[in-house]
Request: fold
Amino acid sequence: MKRIVVLGAGESGAGAAVLAKKEGFDVFVSDMSKIKDNYKSLLDNHDIKWEEGLHTEELILNADEVIKSPGIPDTAPMIKKIKEKNISIISEIEFAGRYTDAKMICITGSNGKTTTTSLIYHILKGAGYNVGLAGNIGRSLALQVAEEKFEYYVIELSSFQLDNMYDFRADIAVLMNITPDHLDRYDFKMQNYVDSKMRITRNQTEKDAFVYWNDDPIVTKELEKYNLKARLCPFSEFKENGVIGYVSDSTFHIDGPVPFNMEQEELALRGKHNLYNSLAAGITANLAGVSSEYIRKGLSDFAGVEHRLEKAGRVRGVDFVNDSKATNVNACWYALDSMTQPTVLILGGKDKGNDYSEIFDLVKEKCIGLVFLGVDNTKLHAAFDNFGLPIVDVKSMKDCVDECYKMAKPGACVLLSPCCASFDLFKNMEDRGEQFKECVKRL
Reply:
């Protein structure tokens, strides 16, 4: 019996362990952190052995294959030892793909992937498709493969998940954009990160499709290096040579496979970034065979994604917007670009090698004050202190919201769009956004 070791017992790891057990492997799960009770119960219910708070070498280095949580970097000591033993390391997505014939619709990008993934799923689900939502959002793909019989999966993929995928193939691959992000994980080399994102096209055949933003200079340059066999389906804000999704005369167009159009004002999502998200989702649904009727309905009644330009409330004329998902500078750029009110901007967290110059012009144009929410705001001060704006440092969300409210006047907006990861002060991005919303409620 082959032995599978799963490192990390979160959503992806626990799901992978259940699928491995179902497929007849000898399974062991090891997590350096404490395992959440719900995942312990899941493992116990399937009679899967596990450990927490340590990695026992003799129970790991005898594996035939290791499934690694995407959150574990290659620099981790145990990963180095596994590689020294020449033991194969794969992702949960790679493993799950071996045991399903479902159509795979996979979405990645530095920004917009969660909204686009959710929108595609919303359209397909509304059209009556037998579809699951997986990857960075939704339940573990492996667990769904073990317990469900979906015909389609819509999967949000991070660069970390793509790094350990080798034979997996996307029937429809969607690449929203590539901008600097997670450079601390890629030796601060942009090309390493770019190479990771481009793995979304790996193994695609003539039967498959690749949907991408035609105006992204990095993507278009990278495509020159690849001899892709998949059908190319670019989209743009404007009609250009070769694009199949665009806007013309305030009308949203998709030229194929089945021609489709609708008035731009009918789209549920507002802002330029959401126009790109809607184009990518509409093209993908069209490629998947969804009728124009259901594409139109899905694009017009989608409710949006939590923590992405989410309205958090209005207090005495001051609007609060939760954009906690903006964990890189480019995401913050799109958020600021969509602002129509004088804005108090909240920045800060764990810096990932950010270059803040991308948002300088928008900060000068849109912002009336800055609040830095982080353990170490040195880099933010170096970037923004000479702008002449009021700046306050805080280390808790309550203090943050209170200081923002002091700065803002009726008619202004407070925008949480931090540019940074959340792990210095919060459990994760969701925790940061939830705390922001709760503090706004208490004003």
Notes: Residues 310-442 form a domain with the Protein-Tyrosine Phosphatase; Chain A fold (CATH 3.90.190.20). The chain has a mean pLDDT of 94. The two ends are 60 Å apart (CA to CA).
